[in-house]
Write a structure and sequence with these properties.
The structure holds 3 protein chains of 3 kinds. By secondary structure, chain B is an all-alpha fold. Chain B contains 4 helices and no strands. Chain C has one domain: NAD(P)-binding Rossmann-like Domain (Rossmann fold, 3-Layer(aba) Sandwich). Classes of the chains: A alpha/beta, B mainly alpha, C alpha/beta.
Chain lengths: 249, 73, 261
Amino acid sequence: MNSDAYTLITGASSGLGRQTAEHLSRSRRLILHGRDPARLIETRDLCQNPDRHLLWNFDLRQGNELEASLTRFIDLNQLAIEGFVHSAGTLDIQPLRLVERDSAHEIMEVNFMCALHILRLLVRRKVNGKHLRGVVFISSTASQFGARGFSVYCASKGALDAFMRAAAVELAPDIRVNSVLPGAIRTAMTEAMLDDVDVRTRMQSEYPLGIGEPADIAAAVEFLLSDQARWITGQQFVVDGGRSVNITT
Amino acid sequence: MEHIYAQLAEILELEQLTADVVLAECEYWDSLTVLSIIAMLGASYGVHLTATEVRGMTSAGDLVAAVQHRREQ
Amino acid sequence: MSAVSETAFDNPLSLHARRILVTGAASGIGRATCTLLSQLRARVVAVDVDEAGLEGLQKDLAGEGHARSCFDLEDVERIPTWMTEVALAGGPIFGVVHAAGLPCVRPLRLLTPEVYRKVLLLNTEAALALARGFQKKAVGDPRGGSIVFISSVMALVGAPGAAAYSLSKAALHGLARSLAVELAPVKIRVNCIAPGFVRTPMFERMAAQWDNVELNRVEQAHPLGLGAPADVANGVVFLLADTGRWITGSVLTLDGGYSAQ
């Protein structure tokens, strides 16, 4: 690990991203990305050595401006980015018949397309030299399994994982690319869903190890970025308390 | 608030919705629809009800009254 | 801060003084796992039929509190009783790693019951017996535990002559899934690691029968090249420690990208 290089975490303002940032801040310099400046500052203050980390404020829904914003940010700060964690994600639970075109586009854009656009920029010599070493996408068990109301979300995570595999094969051996697939964990994004007592009760019985915490996912991200995972690439790393293998209730 | 019955009707896939309709008896009444209603109320009226609160409503009229009440607060 | 906030690697306390039983400890993946665990101050119970190999392992183990057991896992009926003896002698066991296994390259027409049953016995039945022994009150740690079966990418893909081996390893995935659900209430997690081609004595013996072209082809099939036993040991440790506390019923494919293409 290069001590002058940075690891970019998108969606660092909240939930998973924040916990991941806190974990990684113990041993890495970070670029914390988010769209809410106040929450980004909060996240940085929770990290170890807050002064070592940079803030990149950008709304990923503005897809057309991403390339300019990121390349400018890298150039301005003369950055070498060795790690990339795509933790930004949006969830909008809707029955398929109520899905709107704009909403579907936004979910695909934030959850998948932005990961593609950021990665394609980070592997360009003119933008980031040959500094990139490891990439982790926060996907979801939803990339493997369907659920009512999750059609676009599932599609976005499925696209993300398929892209991950192709990128892993193409960018080897210098760059490793993997996905972490969390099950249901307690964050702001899942709050509304878990607030329903029927849903919560059902999920507790479906999850052999109960509902998870962001720290469980952060540990997996950290491992995949580390040298200990130097022979792991193209992998979907399931961290879900056993949910996806359970058919009992 | 004049459109709220029309919006709820669309989510519940009903031709029309009147105040006396019992929500739990609607064909499309389930946890997924409850979430869609919560999202719509938040986006259209700035009112944030929880799933427990929405499920506690008996009729469409009860729900609309609760939304109105919350808006006035 | 919760225990999981430290990685298994920069916080040795995560596995400190925890007893981990490792089969196939005398060589390859099992050996690398024992060495790494000892560096993290776990108490290793090294198991193998190779007594000389176990003896040689001792000098590689850091720390103390280790034990060894020269036991033939093909004696599956005795496994639970033997595990009770191990626990009584040195304390409850927190983790089990089944790294012992038999390779098998045999075309179907020569794959008689005698041949494939031998492979299934060590690779698969022993795994089930180890789990059965582990869940006994006299054996396991009341805080819970973690079982890791070393399967193989051959459980996910096929090749001529690999039927028996693939069968024996794929079975571990199904085994792990149901055991994970069944043992979750008693806090025992069960996972598999499916390694790609790793440079171990087992691999070297197999590769000795290939020509350079074939060896090259196998190496090319791994985007990150062939693996080292330590690479797999790293994954085992991650699953054993609190870093894996919410992971169960999973297959961690540790294969240098082999199955991604």
